[in-house]
């Protein structure tokens, strides 16, 4: 259903931006996994507003409460309920949006679909909805880390508008977290920060590309046909706010190669079947082959810009609208933990499905 | 599940390449929809081998049989079973593939997943699996055409390797079908045909990009959060064989724009809310806005090349493999009806879900 | 999944008996349905402890909080999060249960399944889990009442042990609610109250049968084959705690009749197709026929008895256990609103599915 | 969906009584399970018409064809397609049923739901639909037998109308199959055969109760809350044609006991936790406890009787109808393998779900 994801490790998020809070229920988490609220909070802190000078200055602590499914630091196997109370609400900032549809937001389409919407803060279409995903992703990661030795998911900002990061030979979480953009190239990071600050000062916004490398996924995860691993990753990424594209391995650029150039030759690395190149991006025929899973996600420039734009009212009249309020001039630094969370959620579900099939 | 797709209009495909046949069950098709076997056959003919000089010369008629769910040319509302018998099988062409893993195919990953596989013809990983999808898509289209005035889905080849088609102002199905590449630019078509014939003569292959325009989808389809319309389209496309990327509206190129440039301003067109530009690609916040839905899909160069490649055996020894057999040097002409079928399937499911919600 | 129910109107409950609280997420509720917290609270009050002298004297207010999905008294179409905080917890009453398995409870099976369990109050196996169902059922009823004129679901206690209520010609909600047993026969009610008080004073317990009549369900709801309306009702009822049997229409007694006696003859009642008898219980071939839906559910005597019983410990030693604490000597008065809630949930889901199919 | 069942071991049946045939797709069967068409055929032979003098004399061979998912006698892990062609069709026998609704059949409700139906042979509502279930059940049993030592499911006729079988101490498949009624009491079998022949000679019909004992299910299968093992069994049984009731363990009779009488005391049997009695029917809190699972299913007398009955036409006029054709005067002998098949399907699904959770 619309607010649920997963077959065996299934999450259901709920909550509007300016209601009492947002949350998630995780149904299907295996029992006896060590889990503390800090495991969750540390990931929420990576996505929360106000964490640095280049993200929205809204003051939301986003403190997670575990409401069920965990006892004495260990999962019970029963549904885990998580709740984050909304705090920093300034409905007044949204008064005029009640009538005018914000361009490239979901205001109009929600009205078209439901005939009603929670105007304040974007309601359900707010990126606050992703809190539940990030929290659930933190739990999924715990499950994977306990079962898959070497499992690691590293997302990072690859480009901001025309600025591109160099990806170093040795990619680490520490490197990515060493700068507030969450890119893997400290030099690029400085230029990216400047760019973001510059466009924000103009009331404008920029987008970019997040790249993600997943290590330690054994060969054999993913289902052929519809639930291919890359298909589920694509859906997961395209379900994040502001995403416009997904590509895996060679992606769109791979269409410029010939088959002979593009194919990944197999070779034996001791006991292991490996490929010399990784244009497949770690997945062949929908199933992981044991190589690193590598994909990219395009995020559009933030739709909220603090400049006057033409639009229409919900009663069908042309008008103009100037957004106020505190928004991200670039969503990518905060999108990095969202991408990682979605990876954890997709991989854990396929891991459990494979365990059922082939124990 | 792995071989099923959809919530209300749900399809389940089955069948291996060189077994008795392939098929699909469609569960949830509304009753009293006019449907003949010709409606289905005409779409299967667009995807079948041997249809032109630039596709694989295998001689498969791919004749569809309706086994249930239809009586006197009208759907009953009960599951529709469809069956296409396999005919042109030459298992001998696959003998050596029993042991050597074909590079960038699913041979190795199937073994890793299942510990067994149907070697001949690629078994379940063969593109023959898409027969069921194309057949089901033809039925989905009938449902949509009966309910949504002006519904139309036009996919076409946008690029083959470095060759790009110009998209004309007036795009029609006739134009696309006027050439065997299924592109919208007759001049480009000639060059594309030459390219495909040239790479084939070298035992090599090429890929490219399919673009798709969907018209007549009313505002309001798609679910916020996980089952966003673009997320389901992305999954559907990335579940097709050989796809490496998906982008909607402005896509990856949109990351080079600023928010002010990228936003789609609303205006009133008589009674209708419209946008001046369509960088959103017809979907905002996961929900259709009534504009044309526009997306692109990257298809890699065919993995089967008739040249010697290095690989390994299923017992862990390095070896070489030269594919024989009759294959597509470029899958895109046959991929066009597959893309359209997946669109029909995604849209009809969201159409029915919306009808349940908001009748 | 284990804690979710429904295809289009989908609920997910969460929460342990003695954790922070219990709740439910309802995903798929149509928009623009009037809904207040009182609509929900009034049903929770019918199931809560301490409501009368014949139910457990635990002091739980069970106050519902709406956390999302409702604005200004109207549903938004987005997930509705509901939360009831746990209050009256006396973990000390459960100390010895940590080791000894309570007979005919779920202590042993939870340990066998999960290797861990929340001992206090029964954790997830507590009947407190049904709070989320009753709350969700109240919302389902609102949806149905708005769409189906005359929709009404009346459950009542048919028997307590050997005591049987007479069902009057005119059955009303007021009659059922006129006595604390929730039976439809005031004379029987008195004897039933006496019986319950008597067994309780002996530390013992009794069970019985709830009968349920559903009116105003139009012909055509329910899916043939697996999701037959009676199959989904059976599952819903057998998913309630303490249920041991389900029968519809003529039920087990119907096996004593011949086909000629058992068949429900059709006749025209003005424009309407009706049946003279209703041995079918309002459902034929899995689909409602417009007659009253009538079924019965067997509830076993409460497993918690305040008498010494033989059992084993979780380390495999024979032992004895005497329950203490405050429990229901008979669950049926509180089970009545649970049965009704499950009916609402099953019917609304089939109602929405039918609306999708046949708008 | 309506024609699919299961979460991980998922089946989808299709087919009308008098169309080309009926079939099933099984998605999620583990790989490398030995499987031959005889494994399936032997179960189909137990449900097919014409197998004895007390069942319908229709001449249907019901020969199964495996269309996919199996190679060289072993499952591939991919969807298994099964097909049984319809042969003995006498549409003429159904001419007058095109207009008159057969009492207590699904004719009227199908029309109410779909506005159309396949009249001949009952179309989708025919018991021929259960062919796919029985075939799929045979496969599920193979999976279970390979993984669960001692797994065995024995269903048998407990009563035919007022005649009741004695259940012997030692219950075996051979005993049940030793008589054409499939009861566990040879003396009762004779009287039951007489009764069935007698009612048939009068053009009438009888029903009865099937009891089922499932052995070798380990403790821990089943999900708490909605997907309780008994809830899924109840749904599975109530989804079979002609069923009116389900009870597990003590069932409806258990409501006459007190809690002290009803509770199943635990004791240690060597290393194993066992219960002295089995009023729980092998399931506690929705989860198997390792004891035998015991339940009963009520089957109504066959609706088809060869006597004149009052009914109405599909155009709203009162009429009478006398069924002709060849029907079962009592469905129970053929229902026994159906009950077993549904048990296999429910248990294998929960077995795989548990394996995913707790490998």
From TrEMBL, chains A, B, C, D:
It is an enzyme of class 4 (lyase). It comes from Prosthecobacter fusiformis. GO terms for molecular function: chorismate synthase activity; FMN binding. Keywords: Amino-acid biosynthesis, Aromatic amino acid biosynthesis, FAD, Flavoprotein, FMN, Lyase, NADP. This is Chorismate synthase. The gene is aroC. Belongs to the chorismate synthase family. Reduced FMN (FMNH(2)). Its cofactor is FMNH2. Pathway: Metabolic intermediate biosynthesis; chorismate biosynthesis; chorismate from D-erythrose 4-phosphate and phosphoenolpyruvate: step 7/7. It catalyses: 5-O-(1-carboxyvinyl)-3-phosphoshikimate = chorismate + phosphate. Gene3D superfamilies: Chorismate synthase AroC. NCBIfam families: aroC, PRK05382.1.
């Amino acid at each position: 259903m619309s607010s649920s994801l997963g077959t065996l490790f299934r999450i259901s998020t709920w909550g509007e931006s300016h209601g009492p809070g947002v949350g998630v229920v995780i149904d299907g988490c295996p029992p006896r996994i060590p889990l503390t609220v800090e495991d969750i909070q540390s990931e929420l802190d990576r996505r929360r507003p106000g964490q640095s000078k280049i993200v929205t200055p809204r003051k939301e602590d986003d403190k997670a409460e575990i409401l069920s499914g965990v006892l004495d630091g260990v999962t019970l196997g029963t549904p885990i309920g998580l709740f984050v109370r909304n705090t920093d609400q300034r409905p007044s900032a949204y008064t005029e949006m009640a009538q005018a549809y914000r361009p490239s937001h979901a205001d109009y389409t929600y009205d078209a679909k439901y005939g009603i919407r929670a105007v304040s803060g974007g309601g359900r279409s707010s990126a606050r909805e992703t809190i539940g995903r990030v929290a659930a992703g933190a739990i999924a990661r715990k499950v994977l880390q306990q079962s898959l030795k070497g499992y690691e998911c590293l997302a990072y900002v690859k480009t901001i508008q025309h600025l591109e990061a160099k990806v170093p030979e040795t990619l680490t979480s520490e490197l990515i977290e060493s700068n507030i953009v969450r890119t893997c190239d400290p030099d690029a990071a400085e230029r990216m920060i400047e760019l973001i600050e510059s466009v924000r000062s103009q009331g404008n916004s920029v987008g970019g590309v997040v790249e993600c490398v997943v290590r330690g996924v054994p060969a054999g995860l993913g289902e052929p046909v519809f639930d291919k691993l890359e298909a589920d990753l694509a859906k997961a990424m395209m379900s994040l706010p502001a995403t416009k594209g997904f590509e895996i391995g060679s992606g769109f650029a791979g269409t410029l190669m010939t088959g002979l150039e593009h194919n990944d030759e197999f070779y034996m690395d001791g006991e292991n079947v490996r490929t010399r190149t990784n244009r497949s991006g770690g997945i062949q025929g929908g199933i992981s082959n044991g190589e690193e899973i590598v994909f990219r996600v395009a995020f559009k420039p933030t739709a909220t810009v603090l400049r006057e734009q033409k639009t229409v009212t919900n009663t069908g009249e042309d008008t103009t609208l100037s957004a106020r309020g505190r928004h991200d001039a670039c969503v990518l630094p905060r999108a990095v933990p969202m991408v990682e969370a979605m990876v954890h959620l997709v991989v854990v579900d396929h891991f459990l499905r494979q365990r059922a099939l082939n124990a």
